[in-house]
Protein 1
Amino acid sequence: MDSDSDSDGSHISATPPNSPPPSTAARHSPVSRRRDILFSSIKLRKKTPAPTSTTSRTILQPKISKKKSSIPPPKSEPIDSKPLTAAPILSNLPFLIKKSANPSDDNSSDGLLHGGHCTSKFASFLKSKDKILNFEPDRPVEIKIQTDAGSAGLGEVVKDEVVVVDKGFTVKSARKSLGLIGGGGDSGLLKCQKPKSGSEGNFVKLNINGYGRKKFSYKNKRTGVSSSTRRWKNSRVRNKGNVKGKGGEENGADDEEGLVVDIETGEERLNFHSEPIEEAVMRVRNEASDENLVSLLKLTHGYDSFRDGQLEAIKAVLLGKSTMLVLPTGAGKSLCYQLPALVFSGITLVVSPLVALMIDQLKHLPPSIHGGLLCSSQKAEEASETLRLLQEGAIKVLFVSPERFLNAEFISIFSGRSLISLVVVDEAHCVSEWSHNFRPSYMRLRASLLRGRLNADCILAMTATATNKTLFDVMQALDIPSSNLIQSTKLRDNLHLSVSKSGNRMKDLIQLLKSSPFMDIKSIIIYCKFQSDTDTISKYLRDNNISAKSYHSGIPSKDRSRVQELFCANRVRVVVATVAFGMGLDKSDVGAVIHYSLPESLEEYVQEIGRAGRDGTLSYCHLLFDDATYFKLRSLMYSDGVDDYAVNKLLCQIFSSDGLSTEETLSIAKESASRKFDMKEEVILTILTQLELGEVQYIHLLPLINVTCTLNFHQTSPPIFASRDFVVAAILKKSEMKDGQYIFNIPSVANIMRMQAVDLLNHLQSLKVKGEITYELKDQAYCYKILKVPEDTCLLATQLTEWLGEVETCKVRKIDAVFNAAAFAANACDKSLGCHKDHHTPCLQKNILYYFNEDADSHVPTQIEQNSRFLRADIKVFLQSNAQVKFTPRAVARILHGLASPAFPPSTWSRTHFWGRYVHMDFRAIMEAAKEELVNFVGKHVT
Ligand SMILES: Nc1ncnc2c1ncn2[C@@H]1O[C@H](COP(=O)(O)OP(=O)(O)OP(=O)(O)O)[C@@H](O)[C@H]1O
């Protein structure tokens, strides 16, 4: 499709010129990448009854575990053959104080994990028995711990030193691994520096009775700077090049128990005393009674009681019942797998969509539970270290990204063995394409894989935000019976919700921040949709003497971490952020969340306001909305749409291989295919994923590689080299010569050599190291092998297109629902439910709950315009003035909505007068009109 046209006849349009078209950069850099990858696959699942009960009750009875563990049995076995076989879970487990990880370092934009990008520094964020692999060895953390448990335990800060005195625990043993807090080896990089005895004046002592989890927020009396921050700096200097903790050596003991402080977040963590916990675990294994569970909870987490839904979920899981758990954000879902992980003998595998979340959850594991993580951008040695520890039984809870399930080696660890006791699917709504952020990679998480290949009997799916339709889908995919749904209200009642329609959002925002209650709130998140907004607003706030920083995926990860650090340390009052901020952020005292832009769904709204008031205090959430943003965001929901014929053409290319041998690696270059089919790369990936994971497995997807290689020989002449090296011979045979360079396609050569593309690349690399060749690679491509050719490509294309259309409709319905709820509150609420002025907690809560419980496909009314008297005339003019270009109805509608697409780039098309002119009108209505006009236009020009 050629679309290079400058002249579009704008001068003769039917409507007067619009206000200047929105900047394409702004329009097309919404940070919600969720939408970009939302398209996915057709799932033709068997229908099972929808979950009916909102709360399932379980009767806990001991169950005999069938599982064997690689972990040797403990010295003290349970008294009888009770359900859950024992493991030496606690002795000599390490205690870890970690430098808080940086959740924003996920390379994938907005912190979302796609294709498993994460920086390697997370990779080694691992707790293990022998080692703590720190990702920044040059930045060890020191924490001083007061060992004198006999002291009164009153906290104070002197000379920036932090120490925790634990009254409730005693030091269990003195270990030699002095550099490692509680560690058993000497390779740990986190430092525990013991105070010199009697130097109490240097240390903070907290009166915590061993169990408290108070917020640590002491300030240095002199500087006013948080001691943890200062401490952090000090420790860096002091520990340079010194891995072993000197202080620890001096004192001869470093295995402290009690409460300790995360040096960066200031958060307290419980150290533990292994024997009482071990005994408590045994008691739960013998009888998972409320009493036994509460006493374990107290020992491991320091809490006196369970929150709503927790006990029920834990009991169900301990009984081996696969469970769907829906609790509000911040309600404490993690605990529901942490305690079972401790009790089960095998591994608990936690699947999480974000590296940031994984890090956060790993960080928040109680010290009695060993954790590790695997993500795809780990260095090979880091991943193998984790796997080694896993196989040794040194990891109880392993966090993995869904992409890990593509890795055959990983799956093979568990195949045929009963190593896994529990699989936890966190953010389980991602499994469903009807959720607000479906992840194609979550499609791999099917009960068949988890049970069949990983040998995991029990699955715990957790989410805070799912409509009934999504829940049904997830439970069906994971084979969770409808009776095993544990669900509590979706909104915390400490969130005060308000809404206002705004004519000038910037001005209204400042006014809001300067008025009660917001003016007194010390920690505020402002959510925006567009990156550019976050920068503009934060600057504007600073200009108005409000301490603010922006946060979005376009900011370098180091700076993002810094913003998060400052915010967590209460040194920045406001963070103006895109959706990228907040995932994995467990700052408990965020007092307000303000939406500067309309969220894309009520799920997103609930998730984001859930960042506020996690400490249970009354917190304020205000939503500013306007029509223009709604139109813009609604329009963007259509940017991934595809047409039947384009999908058909793509399928023809996918299955166009000559040989169709299952051994052949085929490829589709991302960029050129995207342009050729006018389809976003993510949409192509979605279709490929569906072809792999749908009901029929047509292809097997392989890792992305650059497929075009340009090669130069430097030492040996090519023919002589070819006679010695059969790979080179094949390359010469398959290459095109251009300017003395050999250009070839990697998979083609690999195929004739009957080798894997990756092995060919390794071979080239070794020749390069020897100085024989240099080469360049380009054209990133999706690689795959064909397993089955569809009998009817057209039918398959139609099914795929229809399904993608349904997903699109679902997304549009979501944004309509959130707009309607806001508009109702602002314009139509009769205040009968108790709302007053801008305060609309009752009516918003009601609408949100209604939305979550609504009938799956119920109609959501829209206020968007369906027609315009100038539309037809404008389309006519547009087509006439671009008569040389082949348009589809979708292409015309996109241009009229100002939506970029691969074949109609904004660099060319935003110049037209029609670009974005009809963004306020329903996209599909424009497509319909464009279709009719195109038929007329083509009819006239053909005859
Ligand atoms: N029984 C309990 N008593 C007191 N605090 C608890 C209890 N259970 C969990 N918490 C605390 O509540 C906070 C939120 O817990 P958690 O992170 O598990 O929430 P979540 O439900 O996973 O939230 P989100 O959906 O936002 O990730 C944590 O600080 C946790 O320690």
Note: The chain has a mean pLDDT of 71.
Protein 2
Amino acid sequence: MAVPDFDVDPDAVLQLRQATVRRGSKLLLDSVDWTVEEDERWAVLGPNGAGKTTMLQLAAATMHPTSGQVAIFGERLGAVDVFELRPRIGLSSAALAQRIPGGELVVDVVVSAGYAVIGRWREAYGRLDVGRARALLTRFGVGELADRTYGTLSEGERKRVQIARALMTDPELLLLDEPAAGMDLGGREDLLRRLGMFAVDAEAPAMILVTHHVEEIPPGMTHALLLRAGRVVSQGLIGDVLTSENLSEAFGLTLTVEREAARFFARAV
Ligand SMILES: Nc1ncnc2c1ncn2[C@@H]1O[C@H](COP(=O)(O)OP(=O)(O)OP(=O)(O)O)[C@@H](O)[C@H]1O
């Protein structure tokens, strides 16, 4: 069902209006309203099955809502060629990562994003592209792995390569699905520091980072959205949203949240 009074904001990066996703009798997302502006960096949190990945799929233009509307870069999904939108969106997710061939050189995994293919195959890439790919790998702490094959990397190293790949096309919207999952403590802290520096860079794109854990939110994130069973529990400025009360409601248990510097920590009470 169309939402008749939906005014697309041409300046917004992403708009969801009453966005609902239904599969059979299950509501994956229920009437979600959400706007992401150019200079915002969002953390999306919620327990398993809350609908976080579904939200990212809408944001990546890889799924349409069953009802309600989605606009990306001021263009309504359904009225725009998604193949024109997708190169403007950088996505790092486990589903995408599974499609990366283990035998590919790391630098090629990154550089091939600019050609919308996974793996280098036989394309000849320009020196500038290769230089950009190497610089991105260095920025995320894996520059020295550029000439290894992807299959030989640890899980944490692969995550960093995936982020570099997502940034290769210089996207206007960066979507990160659990970037710190599977990392050891040192690796996680190093990645969060790098993502935090990236998030405060004025040149960085709008960001949406999905996670289960408040500890995995890098510094520099400006906003947060909490989901539970497909519905928004709270959204807005990160300090207003990540309260003990809101987190407890989203995760369905009594939690206490502490903020230290620009990081958040939660535990059950
Ligand atoms: N095609 C489908 N048919 C029925 N249910 C589905 C379908 N796809 C997803 N779901 C269900 O929708 C819910 C939301 O899924 P989603 O992957 O968006 O959650 P999530 O918050 O990303 O979860 P997680 O943190 O576990 O990755 C889950 O309960 C999932 O089992």
Note: Residues 14-268 form a domain with the Rossmann fold fold (CATH 3.40.50.300).
